[in-house]
Design a protein that fits this description.
With 323 residues, this protein is α+β, with helices and mostly antiparallel strands. The protein contains 8 helices and 17 strands. The strands form 4 sheets. Strands 12, 13, 14, 15, 16 and 17 form a 6-stranded antiparallel beta sheet that branches. The chain has a 5-stranded antiparallel beta sheet with strand order 2-8-7-10-5, with no helix packed on it. The chain has a 4-stranded antiparallel beta sheet with strand order 4-11-6-9.
Length: 323
């Protein structure tokens, strides 16, 4: 059934401000239990859809693209987010949220400027600002806590809002499901057995699913390394160029679910040593290079052992090592 209907705060040197009263008259919050997506088994709530023009949908898609909260969502879930968000136009002086109030919506900025205000020892201080980008309001929805700051528009602008129930149903619940899937995947990877459970959980949160069609090139030999991959579904073919200077390739191996690839270029700081192609539909969990270095330190020695194996395979296939 369908019904039609975060950021770090850096203090600056702004003077104390007089906080105008909110025109929305929101009630102050009473703390409740934080939302537990694992305990939420209600999947029967109607999907909320706010009709949008193509131009509005394109603007919204651009605005939400950098938001980390949405990284765990697949394409269908992301479309549900776009469907459920509604546009609000703002004028200078409008209060979007007020410190201490209940959390009603999660907000994404499309255009306009906004100040972040905090009540510190009875004086309201500007502690940061947004300029035509950013998002806010998720913490109160995630943890059932009062709003931690006041956001006031300082120009005309446009923001997009996602209501509490849709935010929890689409974003938090699916993120929790995705984490469980990733944790199960990572538990099957022999190399990661040395990680503590909390380290695997942090690793799961850093992964992003990428899907590939049959024959699609996932990584190209000679390219710079941007991360490594854990296979969720399907099989990939590992191929290397012949040493005669031609562009022809020779298949080295095939790897499948629970295995990984792309780590050697990160360990050696060299370009990709082989090309990887999807054999049929493939889904991989991708770990970008920064997270690899931060989260997989305990596993680097184990990964490095694979280098000798690859060198032996190169000698067998080509009669010499390939740089």
């Amino acid at each position: 059934m369908t019904t039609i209907v975060g950021n770090d705060i850096t203090p600056d040197e702004s003077p104390f401000l007089l906080l105008p009263s909110s025109k929305y008259g929101r009630r102050k919050s009473v703390c409740a239990e934080r939302y537990d997506p694992d305990a939420d088994d209600n999947d029967k709530e109607p999907k909320v859809v706010y009709p949008k023009s193509d131009e509005q949908r394109d603007r919204l898609a651009q605005a939400v693209q950098p938001i980390l909260l949405f990284r765990a969502l697949d394409e269908t879930q992301m479309q549900d987010v776009l469907d459920a968000m509604f546009e609000k136009k703002t004028s200078s002086g409008d209060h979007i949220i007020d410190e201490g109030d209940d959390g009603d919506n999660f907000y994404v900025i499309d255009t306009g400027t906004f100040d972040i205000l905090k009540d510190i020892n009875g004086q309201v201080i500007k502690v940061g600002s947004y300029d035509s980008t950013g998002s806010f309001g998720e913490l109160a929805l995630m943890y059932n806590t009062p709003r931690a700051a006041t956001i006031v528009a300082t120009s005309e602008g446009i923001i997009w809002a996602l209501d509490r129930q849709s935010f929890r149903r689409i974003v938090l619940k699916n993120a929790a499901k995705k984490r469980r899937v990733y944790e199960n995947l990572l538990e099957s990877v022999t190399m990661l057995k040395s990680l503590e459970p909390y380290e695997r959980m942090n690793l799961a949160d850093a992964l992003v699913t990428k899907a590939y069609k049959d024959g699609e090139c996932i990584i190209q030999q000679g390219d710079e390394a941007d991360g490594c991959y854990f296979i969720e579904e399907g099989t990939v073919r590992v191929s290397m160029k012949n040493t005669d200077g031609s562009e022809s390739e020779k298949e080295v191996s095939r790897i499948s679910k629970g295995q990984y690839f792309g780590e050697l270029a990160l360990l050696t700081n060299k370009p990709r040593a082989a090309s990887i192609y999807a054999v049929g539909p493939v889904k991989c969990a991708f770990l970008e290079v920064g997270a690899f270095e931060r989260l997989l330190g305990p596993c680097k020695d184990i990964m490095s052992r694979n280098i000798d194996h690859y060198k032996e395979e190169q000698k067998r296939l080509f009669g010499e090592e390939v740089d």
